[in-house]
Design goal:
Shape of chain B: globular
Largest interface: A-B, 83 and 87 residues
Order of helices and strands of chain C: EEEHEHEHEHEHEEEHEHEHHEHEHE
Radius of gyration of chain C: 18 Å
CATH topology of the largest domain in chain C: Peroxisomal Thiolase, Chain A, domain 1
Largest sheet of chain B: none
Number of helices of chain C: 11
Order of helices and strands of chain B: HHHHHHH
Oligomer: heterotrimer
Structural class of chain B: mainly alpha
Number of strands of chain C: 15
Chains: A mainly alpha, B mainly alpha, C alpha/beta
Helix content of chain C: 25-40%
CATH class of the largest domain in chain C: Alpha Beta
Radius of gyration of chain B: 18 Å
Structural class of chain C: alpha/beta
Number of helices of chain B: 7
Strand content of chain C: 15-25%
Helix content of chain B: over 70%
Number of strands of chain B: 0
Number of domains of chain C: 2
Distance between the termini of chain C: 18 Å
């Protein structure tokens, strides 16, 4: 091997030396776990409709139920194991959003309920609300001009 | 048993495949771009708002049901849909009211369950 | 004591490492090195309420252990050098606040253990101190919380990431007594080769280790074959590989002598620690637990101990800064 002198050479060399994530295996696990979570959501949705809820209420119930399950599994220290196995499969569905709110709430409890739980709850999920809500306001403003 | 007879199992299958496929896109982003989980979530929710705002996401929901609504893109599309519907009812004010209104159930649930979990759970090490 | 070459100090009356002690957490207790440590914990909290309190307790108890093992009354210890990874080194200062020994807080990230031994040995040799205590600690949970994500977050660790060792290592240096000598110290320069990935610390620190080791050989006129073993701090599997190849490219073959504490600490296949161990306690516990005994038993007579550190924090990572590395080397002989 030639001696490495520049940062660029070193960066290329490190890229070559660093193993890649097992992407095929990860994608397979993400696919079936993610699909399964959505399917559970679909069955809850069908059940709500069967019980006579309208479609907006049904999908809200689906969200709340999945968030509840995710929060429960997070507090039992099970969700992080699912997340390690499934990666985006549990992160991308609404369960990942719930986990990213519940996990700092548990972790920062040691700093007190106000500044710890209350203050740090959105360290991971805060950006989702900031960007999601801001984008929806922009969409709404544009819509108000068009309509 | 009547409940199970009423289920459209083809829709459930499409839901599984579409939901799984959206997660695979997320997995490729994680493995190939070194984006942190927070950034992945932001990418998905913003994409959802844009597709929802353009009126495209509802076709995916019609096709795959929860396979489109449960991933965070669905959360984003729901924000956009709420904002547009509220604008139709009450004008510009709706742009500020509608989005959060339609997502309020999910947001309130996550906050409430997070608070409850912090009362009962103790942080624990990942075993691996 | 005199300076030789560019950055090495050679001791005329080499300070002696009188005693060491180590305590490790549960995961380390399942690893291949478990039998060498003084105490293996079964609970990361160790009966405390927070990770930070647990880490303070670990360093406190390790220091108590080294003092009682050495038989030196704590009032005779002149100075203490200690540090850790948490902001403003709270584990060390909180853990050791009841110790009543003049205290220097040291921050060298994961190189802290050897950095404190460098400073301590200069104090001993200059006559400023009769006994010096050096200690360091790290804790997987407190480090994850500060540098990465909450433990409950369901994320995946990339294959290049390293596992912060839970534990603490401590040593007592003196100028009379039996034990291995610190004959040379080579404090390292800050080396930054532009690596930005905080999940690839081994690659970020390897160039610093390379720089310090080569400088040590140039300053002392020694060759790698002079040593029975060259041991780095926490480069892990990837960093170890990189250092081996880069040393080779500079004309030094250290492959047969060289190992890394991050590689030694865990069983890569069984424990799922990816690139290996890291953290202040990695080299701290493995030197205190394993290599000190090997030196005492004269199975290793000449050891070059190179602790590496990544001098970054979570803010610098978020701001997209590259990671400066550092490596301090000490030559220990008996």
């Amino acid at each position: 091997m030639k001696p490495i002198e520049t940062k660029q050479e070193y960066s290329d060399y490190v890229d070559k030396k660093s193993p890649d994530s097992p992407i095929l295996k990860n994608c397979f696990n993400a696919f079936w776990v993610g699909g399964l979570i959505c399917t559970i959501g679909q069955l809850i949705l069908e059940f709500c409709k069967y019980k006579g809820f309208d479609s907006q209420a049904s999908s809200t119930i689906v969200s709340i139920t999945l968030i509840g399950i995710s929060a429960f599994l997070t507090s039992l220290n099970i969700f992080n194991k699912i997340g390690k196995f499934a990666g985006a499969g549990s992160l991308v569905p609404i369960t990942g959003f719930a986990n990213s709110i519940v996990s700092p709430a548990i972790e920062y409890k040691s700093e007190g309920y106000v500044m710890g739980v209350g203050g740090k709850m959105f360290t991971v999920a805060g950006p989702v609300l900031v960007f999601g809500i801001s984008a929806s306001v922009i969409v709404g403003i544009i819509a108000s001009f068009i309509i | 048993m009547e409940f199970f007879q009423n289920i459209d199992w083809m829709l459930v299958l499409r839901c599984f495949i579409v939901g799984g496929f959206i997660c695979v896109i997320g997995q490729i982003l994680i493995d190939k771009t070194k984006l942190t989980p927070a950034k992945i979530l932001v990418v998905f929710v913003t994409t959802g708002v844009i597709l929802g705002g353009l009126g495209l996401y509802k076709y995916l929901i019609d096709f795959a049901g929860s396979g489109a609504t449960v991933p965070l893109t669905g959360f984003g599309a729901n924000l956009a849909k709420g904002a547009i519907e509220e604008v139709q009812k009450s004008g510009l004010l709706g742009a500020f009211v509608g989005g959060v209104k339609s997502a309020s159930g999910g947001i309130a649930a996550a906050i409430f369950f997070g608070y409850i979990a912090s009362l009962i759970a103790k942080p624990k090490i990942k075993k691996q | 004591m005199k300076k030789v070459g560019k950055q090495t100090i050679s001791f005329d009356a080499p300070p002696i490492i009188l005693e060491t002690a180590s305590i490790v957490g549960p995961k380390e207790s399942e690893g291949p090195m478990a039998k060498y440590f003084d105490q293996c914990l079964t609970d990361e909290f160790w009966g405390e309420k927070t990770w930070e309190k647990a880490e303070s307790k670990i360093i406190k108890e390790t220091v108590n252990t080294v003092i009682s093992k050495s038989g030196i009354p704590s009032k005779d210890i002149d100075f203490c050098f200690a540090g850790d990874l948490l902001n403003q080194c709270i584990s060390s200062s909180f853990g050791l606040r009841a110790l009543n020994i003049p205290f220097f807080g040291v921050f060298g990230a994961c190189s802290t253990f050897v950095e404190s031994m460098c400073l301590g040995s200069v104090f001993i040799e200059s006559g400023a101190a009769k006994y010096v205590l050096c200690a360091t600690s790290s804790h997987f949970c407190s480090a994850e919380k500060q540098f990465r994500f909450p433990l409950e977050l369901g994320n995946q660790r990339p294959p290049t990431s390293q596992w912060t060792v839970t534990g603490s290592g401590a040593s007592i240096l003196g100028h009379v007594g039996e034990g291995p000598y610190i004959t040379h110290i080579t404090p390292g320069k800050i080396v930054d080769m532009g690596i930005k990935d905080a999940n690839n610390m081994g690659a970020a620190m390897a160039p610093a280790a390379l720089d310090t080791i080569i400088q040590h050989f140039e300053d002392t006129g020694r060759k790698p074959s002079y040593y029975d073993a060259i041991i780095s701090g926490d480069l892990g599997h990837i960093g170890k590989d990189i250092l081996n190849e880069m040393m080779q490219s500079k004309g030094y073959n250290i492959k047969s002598l060289y190992n890394d504490c991050g590689v030694l600490m865990f069983d890569k296949n069984k424990q799922d620690t990816h690139s290996g161990g890291s953290g202040c306690a990695c080299i701290g516990t493995i030197f205190s637990g394993y290599f000190f005994k090997e030196l005492k038993e004269k199975r290793i007579r000449r050891l070059l101990l190179v602790a590496t550190g990544a001098l970054m924090n979570s803010t610098s990572t978020q701001q997209g800064e590259s990671i400066p590395g550092i490596a301090h080397a000490i030559s220990i002989e008996i």
